[in-house]
Design brief:
48% helix; single chain; 404 residues
């Protein structure tokens, strides 16, 4: 065998093996099969061993599993809320470096290359970033040792953010031809948490999936060769995919949507803006001017009006209408309309069908869309905020029609 694989997975805040999905699901299945309490617990503990491996002596909170002769996996439980003690970010990153170095030194003479895969979510993403930096420094002059980093919504916690190393990480400063990084951010979360600023990763995905779900994309793209910045809109009920690349020419179109999605203030908008601008190579002064011009985060209606009105600047009817559809899926308020009300969902489906109808003129398409939106307006006549949103959509569609 030519390659030896070392994989390290870092859990998020307060995640342990006994509250992992593997343990809980097995415990429930055992209980459903009417096993007694002892047998159910034993089955769940065995499932943890099968999934994550055995405990490692002298390394509490870590499990190890081997697959064949060339794969070893380490899994580390997450830090507590206050990030202190034996499973803190600092302590865990030290354990990981020690264990991985042992494996590298033991196997590097027997294999042509060693691939170290580091994956972490939430505070585990911060831990994985620190481990990447330490390992890169250790193996700087050994190109046969390759490192890949994958994080989902890396977060340091309120206390750890006081340390600069836990707030910001620039992949380019440690990068070479044997380090690859995939970073996934959630646009908005129910938690008041400011994510770690990870700059210049090979692949950056900003998604509408929440803090606890965006690791699905990390798993999907960890081994991908895709590069760039992509906006991932979870709109599979209308379109098969909504993954769109953010470039300088599409920045003005997609960046405001990220701000609209933010559910509560946490500096997330500013962190994501910095990550995007730095990846695109936009000057610092331009970025600072842009950040200072952002509407107050509480003025949601102003954001909505600004974003909807920008649809009229798009050159083609289909682009403008698809942009309006995107708004529904980006904004939590709009998305609740889609999920809770069949009429609004029908509106979006009918809009898609109207756009794809090759026999209808652009003006006719606009009329059909206005009719569908008006039906939604009547439904929400007693809900001022939703009615105002729909009125904005109608007015904008009329502007689009006038420009046809």
């Amino acid at each position: 065998m030519d390659t030896y694989f070392i994989e390290a997975i870092f859990f998020g805040t307060c995640a342990t093996f006994k509250n992992s999905s593997t343990y809980i699901a097995t415990l429930k299945a055992a209980s459903d099969n009417r096993k007694n309490k002892y047998d159910a617990k034993e089955a769940a503990e065995q499932a943890v061993i099968d999934t994550y491996g055995e405990k490692i002596k002298d390394f509490p909170g870590v499990r190890m599993k081997t697959s064949g002769e060339n794969i070893i996996e380490f899994t580390f439980i997450g830090p507590g809320i206050f990030d202190i003690g034996r499973n803190s970010i600092s302590t865990t990153s030290g354990k990981a470096v020690q264990l991985i170095k042992q494996e590298v030194d033991k196997n590097k003479d027997n294999f042509k290359e060693i691939i170290i895969k580091l994956m972490g979510r939430s505070r585990g993403g911060t831990t994985a970033s620190l481990v990447t930096k330490k390992l890169k420094e250790e193996y700087e002059d050994e190109p046969s040792i390759k490192i890949s980093l994958s994080t989902s919504d890396a977060y340091s916690g309120p206390l750890n953010r006081l340390q600069k190393k836990n707030r910001k990480f620039d992949v380019s400063k440690i990068s070479s031809n044997h380090v690859r990084a995939v970073v996934v951010y959630s646009m908005g979360t129910q938690f008041n948490c400011t994510p770690m600023e990870i700059n210049n990763a090979d692949l950056i995905i900003i998604t509408t999936l929440g803090h606890n779900d965006c690791h699905k994309l990390t798993n999907q793209f960890a081994s991908s060769t895709l590069k760039g910045i992509f906006l991932d809109i979870d709109a599979d009920m209308i379109y098969d995919t909504k993954r769109r690349e953010i470039k300088i020419k599409t920045l003005a179109k997609y960046l405001p949507l990220i701000f609209l999605h933010e559910k509560r203030y946490s500096n997330r908008e500013k962190i994501l803006t910095k990550v995007i601008f730095k990846k695109l190579g936009i000057q610092k002064k331009v970025m600072e001017d842009f950040l200072s011009s952002l509407p107050n985060y509480r003025d949601e209606m102003k954001k909505i009006e600004t974003i909807i009105s920008s649809a009229s600047n798009l050159p083609k009817l289909k682009q403008a209408c698809e942009y309006i559809i995107d708004i529904f899926f980006i904004s939590p308020r709009f998305l609740n309309l889609v999920k809770s009300n069949g009429t609004v969902h029908k509106l979006l489906v009918s809009t898609k069908e109207i756009l794809e109808d090759e026999d209808t003129t652009p003006e006719g398409k606009c009329d059909s869309i206005i009719t569908a939106i008006t039906a939604a307006k009547a439904l929400h006549s007693k809900k001022p905020f939703k009615r105002k949103i729909i009125e904005q959509l109608i007015a904008q569609t009329k502007k689009i029609k006038a420009s046809c």
